[in-house]
Amino acid sequence: GLNGHRHYMHKEIFEQPQAVVDTLEGRIANQEVLVDSFGASAAQVFERISQVQIIACGTSYHAGLVAKYWFEDILRLPCQVEVASEYRYRNPVIANNTLVVTISQSGETADTLAALKQIQALKDSRTELFIPTLTICNVPESSLIRASDLTFLTHAGPEIGVASTKAFTTQLVALALLLVAIGKTQKCLTAHREGLIVKGLIKLPGLISDCLAHEADIKLLAQSFADKHHAIFLGRGTMYPIAMEGALKLKEISYIHAEAYPAGELKHGPLALIDETMPVIAIAPHDELIEKLKSNLQEVSARGGQMIVFEDERSGVSSESNFNVIKATTNVGRITAPITFNIALQLLSYHVALIKGTDVDQPRNLAKSVTVE
Ligand code: F6R
Asked: Quick one: signal sequence residues (predicted)?
């Protein structure tokens, strides 16, 4: 049941601290990631790979995009990410020693499954190739799980709302664990760095709860939105895919047209859209790009754009501007920041949809599991 929540989406947003705890359970011990969480042969596989190809759709694709920033930055491991419906039809080149990672809440998404089967067929016909496959999925015994060499189950629990929330969060946790598992097997991640990442993951449920405590402020902010027809989401680095995810959530449950841009791309076109009627949502963690992001925000505000900024304790946007700022979180790290900021965007979409009176759990035209092409 709904357990006192008005919608499954709301319930599932608030289940996220527990979903993270459950996904970490049995996968870490003594500040270490247990590599065989990905399967008994995971260490042997991870040792040999020299790049990663992630394939997914929708929200799961956005999780993959965040992971690309992590893998390349922290491990210096090449990582490509592609939506399954493009990957499978474009005759892609796949290098030997590539780990193929499919990400899916349902494990039944037709395009993702077809892409995986295509790779399996290639492996069957060219047995000299080493192209191991891994599925990160929320449903045991699903088609994707059955078709993969290695598997990792996110323990988000059943996700009923069509808009994916807690599954996405646990996919990111799984990808962070994968990063550490590969890094330690390949000896390109020190025990110290591993310990820091694991500590961050252990703190994550608390960080998410702190963000959920801002619901009243975010709800208030949603009121300035409900009469809008468009919105722009901005981010840099990992916050760019989080902006994409925020825009997707807003589109699918509130039917407001939303676009995400990397903040540095603004002046290459989208700045022309900005006027007083355009809400611009920026995700502004205190990282090495914050000063550049702030100058992007000034450009928007100078054109009359209605700025809404999600920042952390140290970003300093609220003290330097008169923008509408929500301190969504205390200072968070490289891995925990995108996961935490996304929670605030989930709440924003939810409350906008609530005001608009749309069917939050069953948006028009959408299905929970896309088993047709
Ligand atoms: C958006 C959403 C979809 C799914 C996509 C892939 O909120 O839920 O974009 O992420 O249809 O589904 P799975 O993850 O089941 O493969």
From this structure: none
Nearest one of 176, 208, 209, 212 to 194, comparing CA atoms: 176
Considering only CA atoms, give the Rg of the chain: 20
- Closest ligand 1 atom to Cα of 370: 11
Q: Measured between alpha carbons, how far is 273 from 260 in angstroms, rounded to an integer? A: 13
Q: How far is the CA of 336 from the centre of ligand 1 (A)?
A: 22
Nearest CA to ligand 1 atom 11: 58
Residues with CB under 6 A from ligand 1: 57-60, 104-106, 109, 112, 163-164, 248, 252, 369-370
Number of neighbouring beta carbons within 10 Å of residue 125: 8
| pLDDT number for residue 260 | 98
The token pair at 139 is 């449903």
Nearest to 349 by CA among 285, 278, 281: 281
pLDDT surpasses 90 at 319:
no
CA of 19 from ligand 1 middle (Å) equals: 17
Distance CA 188, CA 196 (A): 15
Distance CA 370, CA 89 (A): 18
Determine the pLDDT at residue 304: 87
* Measured distance CA(241)–CA(166) in Å, rounded: 16
pTM of the entire structure? 0.97
From 13, 55, 59, the mutation candidate for ligand 1 (largest count of ligand atoms within 8 A of CB) is: 59
Tokens coding 23? 């996904």
* pLDDT tens digits for range 226-238: 899 999 999 999 9
pLDDT, average across residues 82-100: 97
Query: What six digits make up the tokens of 79?
Result: 């990582």
Distance separating alpha carbons of residues 69 and 162, to the nearest angstrom: 27
DSSP state of 261: E
What CA–CA distances, in Å, run from 276 to 191, 231, 303? 50, 12, 8
pLDDT band at 110 (very low <50, low <70, confident <90, very high): very high
- Phi, psi (5° rounding) for residue 190? -75, 160
